[in-house]
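User: Quick one: structure for sequence A, then sequence B.

Assistant: Sequence A:
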Amino acid sequence: MATIGVGIIGCGGIALQNHLPGIELCPDTQLLGLCDSSAEVLERAVQQTGVTVSTQDYNELVRRDDIHAVIIATPNATHAPMAIAAASNGKHVLCEKPLGLDQAETLDMLRCARENGVRHMTAFTYRFVPAMRYMKYLVESGGIGQPYHIRTCRLQDWGDRNLGWRQLSHMAGSGELGDMLSHRLDYAHFLIGDMKRLTADIRRFIDDRQGQASDLEDWVTVMAEFENQATGVLESSKLATGRGEGARSQDYCEINGSEATMVFQLANPNQFQIARRGQAGLETIDVPSEFLVWPGTSRDPSQGDPGINFRWDQDFEFIDAIRNQRECDPSFLQGARVQAVMDLALQAAVDKTWLDVQYPGG
């Protein structure tokens, strides 16, 4: 196809802040259609983008011949039916995380995408962080020796504010586990590898958020042992008083290896700290230029906010995979693997025990 026509389903902040600029980076690609269940949100998106095709019915969008690919940025409970409808109509699909409400849904999505021969991608944005990509390179090339530990800490202060659908189990499936820790579970896979077993704990400290009931956790911790014998502690909270929210709140990842330690903070996505064996303390290093952008993209890493702009690379990867008829990185399979861990973590928290991890087949 000469030009790839893209439709966005779910026109809130994530779609317009992260995906719209990403689409604009892709050559011979055009945003042609918008869909949102809210007429007000849809109208704002139309005014911002100038797109003339808009609908509140996603089935109408995915049946259009001029739409070749869709980006789904809607509540978690809608991901599976929307992705399956899109794939069944031959549309390539980029879907926000977590991919589904449970592993059964994610496997249905993966199966449908494969059966219909479409590209499929899970929006695990942090795989595109320059520092994360360089850290992965150092781990895989032996630059830190044998990995011993990974710990991640995502701390935000949302207080008792209303979280909308994110505080409702029938819409979100899980709370802080799916909302924020799903990213950390994915980059634990990305940086360290498969988990062998895990245990978890979840807590809900606030039952009522500004007059609306909440039935999901606002804090979660997963402890894991990996197949390579490394250990992991992954924590996330919406109740870290004074920490703020968004890209400038606490978002930390540390990997300890036999030869070096690496420390990443999202506030500085083009840098991280490293301490090598025998070295007194951490030193800050810049990410080499070849890791600053996703291969092939025209994005200039020196322009704009580096804490935001790396997110646009995932849309380039999605479109590039479509054009070159290859699997997306990360695909629905990576989304299903994280969902397997999430489902197990919820069970481990109930059973208060360690459970063995069984991943879906490739």
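Sequence B:
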Amino acid sequence: MIRLFIALPLPDEVERKLAGIIDMLKSEDGNVKWVSSQNIHLTAKFLGDTDENLVTKISGEIDRIASTFAPIDCAIDTLGGFPNLRRPRVIWAGISGDTETAVKIAKQIDLAMRKLRFEKEKRPFKAHLTLGRVRQGSRLDRLADFMEQYRLDPIPLRLDRLTLFKSTLTPKGAIYDRLHEAVLGKERLSG
């Protein structure tokens, strides 16, 4: 079994800008497990522990779905927390612009994966990038105050591919390996 998820990865320059934002947020509170910037992506579907024999079928569905959608032009323009900034479990960066296409892609992936016997998504898709996870029982008043005052200059973002990632959990954090990638609007990129 391998742990898998499907996501829209970020361009390197966007990862670098998010790394700077995370460094700035780290200085406001240390009780958050921050995500490494190269591990930030827009998750379309978490598959979890998966039989390796399904990778080819999953990749075929990714190719099919990616070929029907054009790249998504949007921007990262807000910071927030789930469920809210005063009692967050997750610190996130919000995306605006053509998020409706991302929602449609996530729905198509969910439908395709259900045919492969993966569970239906329980929550509606919300376009966001997880920057950090708050350690249990933490109050982050200083960080919340900072984030409420901070104005993020919009970061242009073009999402142009769907990727099947393998996630290996280690004591130092997750390691993500790209198993398959398909460019939006094009035929198969690699396998």
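The chain has four helices and ten strands. The first strand starts at residue 2 and ends at 9.

User: Thanks, that's what I needed.
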